[in-house]
Amino acid sequence: MKMKQIVLPLALALAAMLATTGCKHAPVKVTPIPGSPAGNVNDVNNQSTLPPGNSMTDNTGGGGVNTAPGGGNTAALDTFEGMIKDPSALAANTIHFAFDSAAIKQSEDANISAVAAALSANPNDKLLIEGNCDERGTEEYNRALGERRSLAAREALGKAGVSPDRIRTISYGKDKPADPGHDDSAWSKNRRDDFVVLHPKTGV
Amino acid sequence: MKKTILNLLIIGLTVIALTSVRAQETPIDITSTINVLGMTKPIPISLSGFTGEGAEVLKFDLTVQGFSFVTPDAAQYLVSGSDAGSISGSLTDKFARRVLLSRSYNGASLRRQAHAFADDIVEAVTGKKGIGQTKIAFKSQPSGYGPGEIYVADFDGHNAQRITTDNAIVAKPAWVPGRLALYYTSYALDNPDIFYHSLSSGQRRKIAGYSGLNTSAAVSPDGSKIAMVLSKSGSADIWTCSADGTNLKQITTGIEDSSPCWSPDGEWICFATKHNERRRLAKVPAGGGTVQYITTTGAPSPTEPDWSPDGKWIAFTSQMRDFNICVVPADGSLSPAVLVEGQNPSWSPNSRTLAFNRSLGYRQILSVLDVFTKQYKDCVRATGSSSQPAWAK
Fold first, then answer.
1. Residue range A61-104, pLDDT digits in tens
2. DSSP, residue by residue, A83-136
3. Mind listing the pLDDT tens digit for each residue in B235-251?
4. Phi-psi category of B330—alpha, beta or left, where left has phi over 0 and alpha has psi -120 to 50?
5. How far is CA A31 from CA A28, A182, B113, B121, in A?
């Protein structure tokens, strides 16, 4: 009787200790990683090699753009198609901007007037305004800022009598620097709108 | 008297036995239960028996999911095994003295097996799914600016495959959730246009090619719509359309809106804008409506937002003298945490790891960051400049 009184609680305590500290080995599992055809990109079973990127067709039919949505807008891209770019005619009239700004500086009024004059002297010409930024903004922000600079010049030319229908805008963000340097001098040259005259295709 | 002593002895021994059992059951609580941005202590883990590529993969994957590698004495978890030929290993909880998993892997490549083992470790310890076998898309430019191409790779940068052959300016790839397809911007047709590109067929079509700017496509969580920046109205605004480009709708009318991203419930579009001369983040109902401004005190000029899949966080780039990756609670309950130098954050499916790009000299390299521990690892480098990563979800 006395022995039981010793053994039982000790046995219980011992059992409790063993239960919580004993090593439990999980059975060794072998995980095969199958290859499988292309599917969900993050599918654990997806071991696909993507098809080579160079066999590609630009399918602009069907849901393509120049036809259905957006076809009715002014200055739609197809009205500029086939025209010949002349980047040198108005190269001297490139306008520059302050950091992070799309405001046309008053000092650029002479350049705007010169561009407007060239376009009214050549009524068959159109214009491409290329907006650019320095490298100090993030990429998508700069793409939008370059476009705003281009649109600002189109508005200024509108006030100077040039119909917006004749003007196409494009932003190059920070991807087409005039000076690839990394200092204030380079950056100030890169914050700009370039004016590219578009001549009609000859013989059309 | 003897009976009393005996009883006391029994009680005493039992108490000692039970007390020591309790002490062994309580592990040292090293990690807090609340993850604080940039200030959470990593889970200490040790690695033995792995050399070469297996060790490299395990260290990369586990570091960016909140673990740090220490000696076995300091570790809470022990990983041991081998990467000779194929991966096999076990994970032990040191304090509970339990082997949590013990596995061998075969098939695919050694790297892939190691990523699968890392995923199993993460799931055993945290209960959450690992990201070791996920993919990113990004753009790469040989000169650091100008023309480039879109690539898809493992999230650590390995196994990169080129998707385009445009030799033109390309930008902002975005995955269709759950599918092998991307939207991205390309100047291949002499204008910034948005393309939809099926990676399984290799075919693409132009979705938005209006006059002016078409860029920054972001896919809704159910894949049915995209948000994007168009300037066809005369200023850069947020528009939405169906996945095929139809049902065009103007959502904002600001003069300089950029970088839309969707909330994971599809109800909101968050974007960068300017308000009262200050650059701000804002959100608008996905169908249009009143714009609400998001406070990011301490993180000026916020841009390029991305909303975490669990809905809790918005990551963004703040522009101070340099660029910094910042994260703010989506409900505005706290100021943003400024984490590391870098731009263009993209959330992984786990809502704690971000892909981003950072400067190395004058070029950009891809990197992967754990926002809670602030630990990060650089991806394997391609030549030129790599940026704008998009994490497949």
1. 322 233 223 322 345 777 888 999 999 999 999 999 999 999 99
2. PEEESSTTGGG-EE--TT--PPPGGGHHHHHHHHHHHHH-TT-EEEEEE---TT
3. 999 999 999 999 999 99
4. alpha
5. 10, 52, 9, 13
Distance from CA of B132 to the nearest CA of A (A): 10
Nearest residue on chain B to A129, alpha-carbon basis: B212
Are A41 and B199 an interchain contact pair (Cβ–Cβ within 8 Å)? yes
List beta partners, residue A80. none
Q: What is the CA radius of gyration of chain A?
A: 34
| Cβ <8 Å between B255 and A138 | no
B209–A66 CB contact, under 8 Å: yes
The tokens describing B42, both together, are 């990593």
Which of B112, B210, B256 lies at the smallest CB-CB distance from A33?
B112
**Residue B94's Cα: distance from chain center in Å?**
29
Q: How far apart are CA A162 and CA B101, in angstroms?
A: 74
The span from the CA of B15 to the CA of B274, in Å, is 69
Residue B100 tokens read as 């949590």
Q: Do residue A143 and residue B6 have CB atoms under 8 angstroms apart?
A: no
Give the model's pLDDT for residue A33. Answer: 67
The architecture (CATH level 2) of B135-391 comes to 6 Propeller (2.120)
Which residues from B are below 8 Å from A140, CB to CB? 171-172, 215-216, 229, 258-259, 303-304
Which residues of chain B lie closer than 8 angstroms to A147, CB-CB? 212-213, 231, 236
User: Which residue among A32, A168, A174 sits closest to B107, beta carbon to beta carbon?
Assistant: A32
How far is B94 from chain A, CA to nearest CA, in Å? Answer: 11
Note the CATH architecture for domain B43-126: 3-Layer(aba) Sandwich (3.40)
Domain locations along chain B? 43-126, 135-391
> A159: exposed, middle or buried (C-beta count within 10 Å: 0-12, 13-18, 19+)?
exposed
- Rounded to the nearest angstrom, the minimum Cα separation between A170 and chain B is 5
Q: B302: which strand partners?
A: B318
ipTM confidence score: 0.87
pLDDT tens-place string over residues A45-57: 443 445 444 333 3
Fold of A87-199: 60s Ribosomal Protein L30; Chain: A; (3.30.1330)
pLDDT for the residue B294: 96
Q: What is the pLDDT of residues B6-18, one digit of tens each?
A: 666 666 565 555 5
**What are the phi and psi torsion angles at A57 (to 5°)?**
-120, 140
**B286: three-class secondary structure by DSSP:** coil
Q: pTM of the predicted model, to two decimals?
A: 0.85
Order of strands across the sheet that contains A29-32 = A29-32, B98-106, B88-93, B77-82, B43-48, B67-69
Show which of residues 22-61 on chain A sit within 8 Å of chain B, judged by CB atoms: 23-35, 38-42, 44, 47-60
Question: Looking at the DSSP assignment, which residues form a beta bridge with residue B123?
Answer: none
Question: Domain residues of chain A, as ranges?
Answer: 87-199
Distance from CA of B332 to the nearest CA of A (A): 23
Q: What is the DSSP code (8-state) at residue B319?
A: E
Confidence (pLDDT) at B7: 66
